[in-house]
Fold these 2 entries.
Entry 1:
Amino acid sequence: MANDSLTIRSFAKINWMLRVLRKRRDGFHDLETLFQTISLHDTLLFEKASETSLACDVDGIPTDGSNLVLKAHAILVKRHGAGPVAVRLSKKIPVGGGLGGGSSNAAVTLLAINRMFDLRLDVSTLGQYAAEIGSDVPFFLTGGTAWGGGRGEILESLPDVEGVSLLLVVPEETMMTGEAFAALGRTGEDDVWATGPGGWRGAVERGLLGDARLANDFEGYFFAKFPHLDDARRKLRESGAVVAMLSGSGSTIYGAYEDASVRDAAAVELAAPLRVVKTETITAATSQPFPEDG
Ligand code: C5P
């Protein structure tokens, strides 16, 4: 059914783990990662309008054609004749923190415009457009807990890792994704061993938080560049986090707790001078704006 206006939540993600396998001829890197949708979210309001526009309630977010929301909309205008929309973005996901806020906004824009203009594009077509916009965008079309391969666009859904209490440390320092990949100095000859989706499915079924293979290849470069943030990671561990690790290419560090009350106490303890955000893992179904379209 087509709508004249839609309000949609746009959830953030963490990466439970991330291995960078090799550099490809197209300049991207093949990787292996485990994506996880979390409850922290932006909200987007889409309204049919005579002209396309984007407004955001926080400063420092580009509202021109460089914003991934407008890139996603432009693809569906050009290829499928979607009409103009006025978009209002209420931003809660920290920017430049490896939480995928811009990518998530782009994915929900594809879903919203598909719905509002009754384009009837299936998930695989939207997935191709999503991958053109950015490596992390396809994940947000389905969400939940998923294995990611290729440059992040090859996805396999895993059983939901549901209701895990998280504490995010969100530093002021930001990390550019391209810089982080380049710093690893991978070549086409490298071939880092990957576990594959089957192996991670088993890990999720056994209890992911206890899995000794959870690691992030960006940590070496990141903590060498920002040693004081290694202290923040250590504080998360000392506060009772079962896992404390960099998310994506940074700069957010997540702590995962078995007990929400331990996480809550840690949030109070770490809040000064660090910026911390309490959040939870959510299921693929909860992350979907239009589950019936899936
Ligand atoms: O796809 P996205 O725009 O998020 O990527 C930003 C940059 O990060 C790319 O231009 C590339 O330099 C690097 N990247 C990479 N391998 C990936 C994803 C990103 O080298 N799998």
Entry 2:
Amino acid sequence: MIILGIETSCDETALALLETRIRDGVFECKVIASEIHSQADLHSPYGGVFPTLAKREHEKKLVPMLKELLENQGDTDNIAQSETFSLLVEEFRVEFRDQNTDLFDSFEQSPFLSHKPQIDAIAVTEGPGLEPALWTGITFAKMLSRLWEVPLVPVNHMEGHVVGSLLNSDIPEGEWQALKPLPTPALALLISGGHTELVSITHSNLSNFKYSIIGQTKDDAVGEAFDKAARLIGLPYPGGPHISKLAAQAREQNISSEIKLPRPMIASKDLDFSFSGLKTAVLYAVREVEKSGPITEEFKMALAREFEDAVTETLSTKLKKATEQTGAQSVIIGGGVSANTMLRESFQRIANEYGISLHLPSPHISGDNALMIALAGALDTSSTTREIRAQGTKKLGV
Ligand code: KG4
Ligand code: ZN
């Protein structure tokens, strides 16, 4: 089976093609293609994602990106517009044009879509995410599924981050691969711009994961805290990588902060998180120093280091606690913040200490991508009959 993945929940427009099979009773997959268009530069001046701008950019990008993806798989030139295409376009005009004008217009002007490619199902992120952005991907997926008469599989974005970390390789045109083994009970720590969640996974029948959220943030997500802290010290959006870079420079140059930031909820017995106080502490630290002049590069470096240390200590302590409480045999880390080197090293130390396996996403798919959506969809084709709606009906992060 070949499945097309579509991801538009936030500020990445992403498409992927994944081939799957069952061989000797084992699920295997092969990455055919995975394209990600980041809108980060577009949102950077606003210091965060601007939903209507994100929607418009998704609308403009989806059809051309699909064209490129299919071109690389075979010839999409000189395809005459079919009668079915013309008829359906008229239906879509009535149904979708008002809400998704740019998307509809580029769809209408693309007769290459008349030709059904070798695609057996379409998986699309239905949530959680930014509503206008989600609807763009869902509408596109609906149009394609009706045009090509293939089933549509709604996918929970956070579930995508869980299964994405089980891929051994994300290299397109790669080899057939089985997923990483996941001894249960397992844990997933999902750390992104919108979520901070500890999830217990009690079943690892691949097409029927059983999730329960055992810890989550009470306010800001950890990625959001990185982005807000970065903004406070004048770094561009998304702030995570910038903070991390400055922190690394501070360590290299042996610069440390005189100001100690809090480690929020580190001593609490539960597995919940809170990051808004950390952001506020950064704000006060900056204000205090600014009383005697503009903040220096050295101060920024020191504070970035202290911030990264505070986040690492907080997440690591909760991960340890959750490992002990659940008796986890393996841990999955997912979400954009998992690109952070300090965090990766700390999580690896914890896994070594407890003698359990750690599954980190490969760098290309630590942030939002469509490969994880195609994979989650392929593992969960049972949900095709469900009515699709933005924000989803499943449990993770909704
Ligand atoms: O999963 P993701 O791509 O999008 C959401 O679903 O939110 O995560 C994006 C978040 C942003 O907050 C970004 O600053 C953060 O991931 N991030 C990082 C790093 N790279 C991305 N945070 C810390 N260190 C990094 N290296
Ligand atoms: Zn994400």
